[in-house]
Design brief:
With about 260 residues, the protein is an alpha/beta fold. The chain is built from ten helices and 15 strands. It has two domains: about 55 residues, Arc Repressor Mutant, subunit A (Orthogonal Bundle), CATH 1.10.10; about 180 residues, Rossmann fold (3-Layer(aba) Sandwich). The longest helix has 14 residues.
Length: about 260
C-alpha cells in the first residue's frame, strides 16, 4: 500500500495492475459501486501524482521518462521509507564510512542517522547533509557540482569525480526503478554515473528502495542486482525475492509478509 493516498486510490492501483496495466472507468465504477464523478475525481488525483496515465475511457500504468516531482516523492511511500531507514541504521556499525546517494529514501536514512555515533558520510544529497549537521560526531563531506533545485541534490562530473576519491565501508544508493530482469534504472545519465561511482568505490554495496520500485520504468540503466550485496526494502514480492536469491543478494525487508501477486 502506498502511503500518502487514500485506501480507495490504493485499491484502484491494485485493480489496475491485476488487469494487466489498463482498466476502464466503467469497470472501476462498477467495482467500487460509486458514481462516475467519484471515480473521475480519484483518477485525476492519481494522474496528478503520475501514478497512472489517463487514456480514452480509463487509465493505464505510466511509462515514465521523468521522475515524480520532489515534493510528491517526499510524501509518497513515506512510512515505507522510514521503515527502511530504521532497518538500515540498526545494521550500520559505529565508526563506519558510507556513501549516501540521491533521493528521498537516503534522505530518511540521514534523518535516522543523527543519533548514530562516529560516522563519516560522503553525500550529494542536500537534505541528507543538512540533517547530518545535527550530530557533531558525524563527519560529513558534501560533493561539489551543479545543484538540481528540482531534486535538492548535487550532480555532474565534479560530483561523480568527488565520490571516486574515496573508498568507504558501505555504499548506499536508491534507484528510479528495478526491471523484472534485475536492471537498476535511473532517470538521467548524471544519476546513473553517480550510482555507479558509489557502487564501485565501497566494500559493501547496498540498494535501498520501497517495494513499488519493482517493475517501475525509467530510461537509463545504472547497473544490475547482481552487483548488489544487500537490498533493504519494506516488503518484497515473491518474484523479486526469487530473483535476489538467484543472484545471491541478501534481502532485509522490514515486513516479513510477502506481497500479494497481482
Amino acid at each position: 500500500m502506498i502511503s500518502g493516498i487514500s485506501k480507495r486510490q490504493n485499491d484502484i492501483l491494485d485493480l489496475l495492475k491485476s488487469h494487466g496495466g489498463k482498466v476502464s472507468s466503467a469497470v472501476l465504477t462498477e467495482h467500487f459501486d460509486v458514481s462516475v464523478q467519484t471515480i473521475r475525481k480519484e483518477l485525476n488525483i492519481l494522474s496528478e501524482l503520475a501514478l497512472v496515465k489517463r487514456v480514452h475511457g480509463g487509465i493505464c500504468l505510466p511509462v515514465q521518462s521523468h521522475n515524480l516531482s520532489f515534493s510528491n516523492r517526499q510524501i509518497i511511500h513515506l512510512e515505507e521509507k522510514k521503515e527502511i531507514a530504521r532497518n538500515i541504521v540498526r545494521y550500520l556499525p559505529e565508526g563506519c564510512s558510507i556513501f549516501l546517494g540521491i533521493g528521498t529514501t537516503p534522505e530518511q536514512i540521514a534523518r535516522h542517522l543523527i543519533h548514530h555515533p562516529g560516522l563519516t558520510v560522503i553525500t550529494n544529497n542536500l537534505n541528507a547533509a543538512i540533517a547530518l549537521c545535527e550530530n557533531p560526531n558525524i563527519q560529513t563531506h558534501m560533493v561539489a557540482g551543479r545543484i538540481r533545485t528540482t531534486d535538492q541534490d548535487v550532480v555532474g562530473e565534479d560530483a561523480t569525480h568527488y565520490f571516486r576519491k574515496f573508498q568507504v565501508n558501505y555504499g548506499i544508493c536508491g534507484v528510479g526503478g528495478i526491471s523484472s530482469s534485475g536492471d537498476l534504472l535511473d532517470f538521467s545519465t548524471e544519476e546513473s554515473h553517480l550510482s555507479q561511482a558509489i557502487l564501485e568505490n565501497c566494500e559493501q554495496r547496498i540498494l535501498v528502495a520501497d517495494h513499488q520500485k519493482f517493475q517501475r520504468s525509467a530510461p537509463v540503466k545504472s547497473g544490475h542486482l547482481r552487483n548488489i550485496d544487500m537490498f533493504f526494502t519494506n516488503q518484497i514480492s515473491t518474484e523479486l525475492g526469487l530473483l535476489c536469491q538467484q543472484l545471491d543478494v541478501k534481502v532485509e525487508a522490514s515486513s516479513d509478509q510477502p506481497l500479494r501477486q497481482l
